[in-house]
Amino acid sequence: MELFSDRYFDFIFLNQSFDYFPLCEDIKRWMPKIRYNKMISGQGYDKPEVKQAVNEVIQGKLGLTVNTVGTVWCAIRGER
Questions:
Q1: Counting beta carbons within 10 angstroms of the beta carbon of residue 47, is it exposed (0 to 12), middle (13 to 18) or buried (19 or more)?
Q2: What total number of domains does the chain contain?
Q3: Any domain includes 4
Q4: What local confidence, expressed as pLDDT, does residue 2 receive?
Q5: In the chain, which end has fewer C-beta atoms inside a 10 angstrom radius, N or C?
């Protein structure tokens, strides 16, 4: 992770964990690496732990809108 500076990526797709705590940590770790107005995404939104983690971190703590298509979720990192 330290290999990449903040705001390095245009798109990140999280595809590692469907468990609540690891996914929360992944979102928090990777969010700073995404450029403003670019996307973070992942799969497994049909799984209760994924849905809870995404909603709590992306919507609750970061105040971003979560969009879904099937089991895939995504959010656009806003400007600061």
A1: middle
A2: 1
A3: no
A4: 80
A5: C
